[in-house]
């Protein structure tokens, strides 16, 4: 599951944050802000993947 999350298209990051993670709303908002600021998408995908496999 970790690898599949890393291979998702960058434009699906906001949807994965909302639908597949257990992050708080504040943390989700910070990640979305990071996306807008130009953070490397792979960094965010790794956070999402770690959250998904820990559930």
Secondary-structure blueprint:
Elements: H1 2-6, H2 13-20, H3 25-37, H4 41-53
Helix pairs in contact: 2-4
* Tally of individual helices: 4
Number of strands: 0
CA gyration radius, whole angstroms:
10 Å
Q: Which structural class do you get from the secondary structure elements?
A: mainly alpha
The first-to-last residue Cα distance is 12 Å
Structural account:
With 55 residues, the chain is mainly α. It has one domain (2-53). The protein has 4 helices and no strands. The protein has helices spanning 2-6, 13-20, 25-37, 41-53. The longest helix is centred in the middle third of the chain and has 13 residues, at 25-37. The protein is globular. 13% of the residues are buried. The mean pLDDT is 94.
Could you name the key traits of this structure?
globular; mainly alpha; about 70% helix; about 55 residues
């Amino acid at each position: 599951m970790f690898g599949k999350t890393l291979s998702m298209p960058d434009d699906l990051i906001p949807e994965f944050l909302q639908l597949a993670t257990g992050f708080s709303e504040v943390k989700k908002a910070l990640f979305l802000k990071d996306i807008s600021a130009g953070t490397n998408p792979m960094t965010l995908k790794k956070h999402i993947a770690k959250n998904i496999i820990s559930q």
